[in-house]
From TrEMBL:
It comes from Bracon brevicornis. It is an enzyme of class 1 (oxidoreductase). Its cofactor is thiamine diphosphate. Keywords: Oxidoreductase, Pyruvate, Thiamine pyrophosphate. This is Pyruvate dehydrogenase E1 component subunit beta. It catalyses: N(6)-[(R)-lipoyl]-L-lysyl-[protein] + pyruvate + H(+) = N(6)-[(R)-S(8)-acetyldihydrolipoyl]-L-lysyl-[protein] + CO2. InterPro entries: PDHB_mito-type (IPR027110), THDP-binding (IPR029061), Transketolase-like_Pyr-bd (IPR005475).
Length: 153
């Protein structure tokens, strides 16, 4: 849980959750994905090194062991390929979490993200939603070269 502060426009009172727990962003993401996988059999994670390696930054740690190969799926280094698979799965009624090792690599699949996923609902007059989550780290990190450090914020 995160500490939550609710401010009312004209009231000076602040409200806090009493038993807040500090979480790293990694642990919060892992917990959120674990919760979604547990609550909905249609949710799955797909991407490079998300299963046996536990994700590039260990965001998917423990999820492959808990949910298995059919729910946490390792792919080859083919961003356009696994993005297309995830979009097709979403169109078929599943709820993929498509993880890029870094958002720099999402550019290899940007046509699919923009034209197949983001616009599909509108291009089909609302008939074909694409319930998908694209996630991954963004920006630079220690020891990474320029092709791994671009920021898309």
């Amino acid at each position: 849980m995160f500490t939550v502060k609710i401010l009312r426009q004209h009231a000076p009172t602040c409200y806090f959750i009493r038993h807040a727990t500090k979480l790293s962003i990694r642990d919060a993401l892992n917990s959120a994905m674990d919760e979604e996988l547990a609550n909905d059999d249609k949710v799955f994670i797909i991407g490079e090194e998300v299963a046996q390696y536990d994700g590039a930054y260990k965001v998917t740690k423990g999820l492959w062991k808990k949910y298995g190969d059919k729910r946490v799926i390792d792919t080859p280094i083919t961003e356009a390929g696994f993005t297309g698979i995830a979009i097709g799965a979403a169109l078929a009624g599943l709820r993929p979490i498509c993880e890029f090792m870094t958002f720099n690599f999402s550019m290899q699949a940007i046509d699919r993200v923009v034209n197949a996923a983001a616009k599909n609902l509108y291009m089909s007059s609302g008939m074909f939603p694409v319930p998908i989550v694209f996630r991954g780290p963004n920006g630079n990190a220690k020891g990474l070269a320029a092709q791994h450090s671009q920021c898309f914020a």
